[in-house]
Every structure is written in structure tokens, then in C-alpha cells.
Amino acid sequence: MEEEYVALLANQTWDLVPRPPGSNVATDKWIWTHKRRANGTLDRYKARWVLRGFTQRPGVDYDETLSPVVKPVTMRTVLSLALSRSWHVHQLDVKNAFLHGTLTETVYCSQPAGFVDPARPEMHLLQRIITSLRQEFAMKDLGVLHHFLGVTVEPRPSGLLLHQWQYTLDILERAGITDCNPCSTPVDTQAKLSEDAGPPVADPTAYRSLAGALQYLTFTRPDITYAVQQAATLSPGRPRGSRSSLTPVAEAEYRAVANGVAEASWLRQLLAELHSPLAKSTLVYCDNVSAVYLSTNPVQHQRTKHVEIDLHFVRDQVAIGDVRVLHVPTTSQFADIFTMGLPSTTFFEFRSSLNIASG
């Protein structure tokens, strides 16, 4: 068995990798036989490691099966040729001859029973990457991902839960409001903030530090983005042009669409580099009909001549099918949670779209 295992490794039969979710993993089996000489006496023990074929799925793990057999005419021809030319006939046995075939399919199988790598019972690839990184940098292995940059990662049956509970408590303690009462939404929809209202804060450095800390908290709490923006911006006004002047409004909305499309394009490129390319178009929703029209209309006219050329890359992305810009009613524009204070019912409805959940 040890000789067989060494031969398997020498032939690079497999790569140890984490089990991909939903993949079929073929189970293994050891077969022991006796190799005997021509006179029937025992020559040696033979162990073969094989996979249970019935655990593979036809059309997924294999398309056809075959077993190499010796063609009698080949044997007779070779022996006849050797005899006619007085060649010496020597016998060789290729170890693990079946391993020299090339599989076109990707087959996942368990490690050989009795030879599971104790250091890597589930993967090998991760350890290889860590070893390569250690050749370039001094590193400390912290084990399974659990905490990074103030963000806690906890495993859940459905995946991972990312939160900043301790970071939030630290912010409340720094602000001296650990005993404050919670509210249903992070901002008062009726409040009107002004940079001139009330006396200046005694310590602007502490205020700015808290505002920056709250901005980082939006990493796992995007639902507080608007409230944090109100606290971090000196002039929180939201001027809007007259609806009678369509062009400036349409340009502002179109610029927002362009920013969204640029982010979507970057994400698509990132996924492609991670070998997970998107097969479908990315949907970008806008509640302005004119901006949606501009994203698909290739005609340059008087109203859009002032729009910068670089913004028209949206049309290119739409034309090649990477992005689709669709209209969404204002009542269903989830992005409003980032730009305005909302009533409790609407706030909780829109927050659910951000995939925010308690532990």
C-alpha cells in the first residue's frame, strides 16, 4: 500500500483542494491481490487504490468507460518479429500504468483510506499558497478567518455573518452614550440640520474622530449611511433644479447611473479575474426616465451635447450586453435609504434589500 501511495504521488495523480460546494466526490477502495510466479508460488503482494465507479455520475464525472486490454495479434507480431531477428526479449512492468491516461473531466475523490494527510485533511492548495507567501513575507498564521480590521466573522449554516458589534460598543463608549435608548430608524425624518444651529462642539477633533469611526461602521451597517453622511458633512443640503429645466436634472441622474455602471463593470472584471465570470447582464436601476433613455439612445442631440464624452461609456456597456439600465418607480428605489431619511416602515423594507440580519 505504501508503494502504491508513493507511486500515486510520483505520478501527480491528484491535487488536494477544498471540496467545492455541491460537487460529487467519488469514494475510494483498496484492492489487495497476490502476484504469483509461473509455478504458482507467491511472488509478491500487490495493492491497488481504485475509485468506486458507481459513485460517479455519467455525463458529469465521465462520458464513457474503457478498460485497456492486450490485443493478441500485437503480442504475436512482436514475438514473431523478435524471433525472426534474434532479439533478446525482456519483460518490464510499468507501475500504475493506468495513471498515464489524461482525463478531460474534473473528478473529485476522497483521499486514500489510511493515507489521509494529517496536516491537510480537507485541503492542500491553501497550505501551498501560505508556504509561497511566507517565502516573500514574514507571516503569522491566524487560522480560520474570524476577525480582521475590526470586523468579526462568524460561521452560520447559511454562510458567514459579518458584524462590528464590539467596534460599535467601543464607539458608544468613546462618545459616552452607552446607556442611550435605541430608536427605530437612525435619523429623524423631520429634523433639519444646519451648520450654524447651536453652539460649536467643544472638541472638534473628538467629533471628527467619531464621524470617521461611524463611516467605517457602514462597512457592515450600510443602513446608517445617510445618518453618518449628515453628521460628517458640513452642508447637508440637497439642492434640486426646476423640473422645467430637464437637461440639468437628467445630467445629474445620468451621472449617477454612470457611477453605478462603472462600479458594476469593475465588479464584473474582478469576478472574471477570480475565474467566476458573470454570464448575464448586470442590472442597474434608475428612477429617472430621461436618464434611462440616454443610456440606450445613441443619437447625440442638442440637450445632451454638454454631457461629457466619458459618461457615454454607459452606452458602450449597454451595447455589448454587460449592463442593462432599467427604470424603477421611486417608491421602489432602494437606494433612497442612502440619500434621505425614511419612515420606519419604508426604512425596514428597504433595509431588508441590503441583506442585513441580526445574529
UniProtKB/TrEMBL annotation:
Pfam families: RVT_2 (PF07727). Coiled coil: none annotated. CDD domains: RNase_HI_RT_Ty1. Residues 11-117, 122-187 form the Reverse transcriptase Ty1/copia-type domain. InterPro entries: DNA/RNA_pol_sf (IPR043502), RVT_2 (IPR013103). This is Reverse transcriptase Ty1/copia-type domain-containing protein. It comes from Paspalum notatum var. saurae.
